[in-house]
Amino acid sequence: MCGIAGLFNLDGVAVAPESLRGMIRMLSHRGPDDTGFHAENGVGLAHARLSIIDLAGGHQPMSNEDGSLWITFNGEIFNYLELREELLGRGHKFLTRSDTEVILHLYEEKGEDCVQDLNGQWAFAIWDNQRRRLFLSRDRLGIRPLFYTQANKTFIFGSEIKAIFANPGVPRELDVNALDEVFTYWCTIPPRTLFRNIHELPPGHSMTVHADGLVVRPYWHHQFEKPSGFVDSNQEQAYADQLLDLLVDATQIRLRSDVPLGAYLSGGLDSTVTTALVKKFSNAKLRTFSISFDEAEFDESAFQKEAVRFLDTEHQDIRCTKNQIAEVFPNVIWHTEKPVLRTAPAPLYLLARLVRKSGYKVVVTGEGADEMLGGYDIFKETKIRRFWESQPDSKMRPLLLRRLYPYLQNIQNQPDAYRKAFFHIHVDRDLEPFFSHIPRWQLTANLKTLFSDSVRREIDGDTGHTKIRSRLPKSYASWDSFRQAQYLETQYLLPGYILSSQGDRMAMAHSVEGRFPFLDHRVVEFASTLPVSLKMKVLNEKYLLKRCAAGLIPPSIAKRHKQPYRAPEACSFLQPAAREYLEALLSPEQIRRDGIFDAPAVAMLQAKFRKGAAIGIKDNMGLVGVVSTQLLVHQFINHFEGRMTSHGS
Amino acid sequence: MALKDELRQFVTDNFMYGKPYEGFADDDSFIERGIMDSTAVMELVAYLEKRYRIAFDDKDLSPDNLDSVNRLVRFVKSRVQPDFTGACDAGRIALRT
Q1: Which residues numbered 9-38 in B keep a CB inside 8 Å of some CB on A?
Q2: How many domains does chain A have?
Q3: Could you give the number of structural domains in chain B?
């Protein structure tokens, strides 16, 4: 896992080596083991390496035999051994054992279609000197990041935006419409990022850049099959066997590494399954890592211990406190490069630090199972709301609402009449395609009352969700609400928040690579063909996964209700570690100077927390959103030069 | 301060951070307009208990009583004790608005 960056002067002017050095310095956390540069014909590629495969021979940027192609690559191609064999059979000569070289030869063979053959997680750029074009690509689900911009006659790209900003000619301006998206969807909708004219290459897309311009196009689509009928127990078993076979292979190829691997073990179903599968193929005692909390409502250590005993792993745990969350939060935002509405990335930042300090560079984790196999509460909520909607006068159907969010005390304690009122949500006909997500999006969008008047005037206010609507696949309307919800989660929240703000960015802040068997594209494509009843049987989430994992994991973990990963929220900012930066960034004067939020509204929100009166989801998201946005502006716009100096040192 | 003004002020300050949503009217449903999230009802009840010394039964906890400024006014008026002066933690209120 690495950091990549590069420049392409479209007018052919030679790239200054110091520009490349300045960019890659900003990505040193992604690749502390080696750096490399290549410049020719107005193009410059840079690479910061985290050595995992072919430790001696994997230096980058790397060229093919005749030097006509050069690549800088971040990621892993897990099927590289099979691809290498095929390419050898076709007469290709390899100088290294790396997966990087496989991409080069595959590009020679298939051109830009080479990405179709890759199974992995990647962001790369290939300079094709003969055709004088730069080819960039990002993996199907957006596990690895890639950003770009064009400043004057120079195309600039990097694994993180901070590398692009290392070029003094690139303006650093907040895009308030991106802020509007975060305060609705929890993430930006690519290609938009938080910064004007800085674009994100969307997951499953490639792009070509040449002197006449650039072309971005998709190479993969996430599609669902039409709903299928009744599934008998034989078919059910066949599906379970197929899923297990795929997961075994997806895990096995993800163990290809020349350094030892560890695993995250949260105590939930998904990471226990992945750890069990890793364990199956590991000879040495497997190292596992987890987070625990003082607060019982977040803590899963009892289940973690049970999984550790059952799987016999060598386990390390980090006890995460509110003060630690407050302490690392500015660094967390330096790495997320976008505001967040939950503090949940912070404990993952601490966990990655523990992994790295323990001498590990690679961890296997359970990300993706909830999206693909039907684990999230939003799917359950959608199912109940639809069921109730079909007989709105039913007294019995709304009783199912009690089954929602069993881990949220505040929701559990509310009176039935209120529970009914909150979930009896009328969705306008026009917004019907977003039936599952309208409650979440509207709740979040209410936070925009915290924006300053000038920001509220400036934002487009896409209340019809036209940007998302315009990109829905043609067959979307034929899917049931459950699959539509899965699609929206996979398309937006997964890459835009889960895999970035909680995933790549937190792990790579400490040079740790995550690997995700559930996100093997074969697993994703198979899961998309499954009947909904196998994902959530009545209200039993991830039913098929539980069935196929029986025997591999402790029965108590297979049976437990899903508890989503959560952390102490905005109350963390009342801790001493946050005092100094909160006083500086949330003072009425600073809020007015930055102009994003309304100073009296922020003061009122803060006062509510100080009084201990803020208990709701909205207040918590509001304060985390304000603090993270202010930190973003402080670090990337107001004081980037200072942050750049400290980062590079 | 009139009761309605005081209740409206509380809802605005606590659930809209002092900035009323556009066109916020006294009959608007707090739930439908997204003014209150699913946990905010507890905050509202705690306030009403403390400020107006109202003892809540489970059956009182209903949107019929609590889901708009006008409903709150009606509910508080119907439940406040005759000897209540409004001096527990703020200035006097006028129950007749």
Answers
A1: 13-19, 21, 31-32, 34-38
A2: 3
A3: 1
With respect to residue B95, please indicate whether it lies within any of the assigned structural domains.
Answer: no
Domain containing B42: what range? 3-79
* Closest Cβ opposite residue B31 in set A421, A608, A613: A421
Rg (CA), chain A: 24
- The number of CA neighbours under 13 Å toward the Cβ of B15 is 28
Domain CATH code at residue B59: 1.10.1200.10
Give the mean pLDDT of A174-184: 97
Same domain, A131 and A275: no
Per-residue model confidence as pLDDT tens digits over A298-322? 999 999 999 999 999 999 999 999 9
DSSP class of residue A28? G
Q: Is there a domain that residue B87 lies in?
A: no
Band the pLDDT of B97: cuts 50, 70, 90. very low
Q: What is the CATH number of the domain that holds A534?
A: 3.40.50.620
- Between B63 and A160, name the one with better pLDDT: A160
B48's tokens? 């009403």
Residues 436-495 of A with CB under 8 A from B: 442-443, 445-446, 449-450
Residue B84 counted as domain residue: no
Q: What is the DSSP letter of A431?
A: G
Which DSSP state fits A258? S
Contact B62 A418 (CB under 8 A): yes
Q: Supply the DSSP symbol for A401.
A: G
- What mean pLDDT, rounded, does chain B reach? 84
Q: Are residues A544 and A580 in the same domain?
A: no
Neighbours of B91 (CB within 10 A): 8
CB atoms < 10 A from the CB of A64, how many? 18
pLDDT(A219) > 70: yes
User: Is A308 found in the same domain as A165?
Assistant: no
Residue A228 pLDDT > 70 = no
Residues of A in contact with B19 (CB under 8 A): 449, 598, 600-601
pLDDT band at A649 (very low <50, low <70, confident <90, very high): very low
Instruction: Extract the tokens encoding A151.
Output: 């400043």
Is residue A393 pLDDT above 90, yes or no? no
Tell which of B38, B58, B59, B89 to mutate to test the A interface (max A CBs under 10 Å).
Answer: B38
- Minimal-distance CA residue of chain B relative to A442: B34
Query: Whole-number mean pLDDT of chain A?
Result: 93
Which sign, positive or negative, has the C-alpha torsion A493, A494, A497, A502? positive
Query: Pick the residue with more confidence: A227 or B25?
Result: B25
pLDDT at A471: 95
**Do A324 and A208 sit in the same domain of this protein?**
no
pLDDT at A648 over 60: no
Q: A240 and A110: one domain?
A: no
Same domain (yes/no): A577, A554:
no
Structural domain boundaries, residue A636:
570-648
Shared domain for A157 and A11, answered yes or no, is yes
Q: What is the pLDDT of residues A562-619, one digit of tens each?
A: 888 999 999 999 999 999 999 999 999 999 999 999 999 999 999 999 988 767 889 9
What does the DSSP assignment read for A68-114? SEEEEEEEEETTHHHHHHHHHHTT---SSS-HHHHHHHHHHHHGGGG
Residue A406 vs residue B51, higher pLDDT: B51
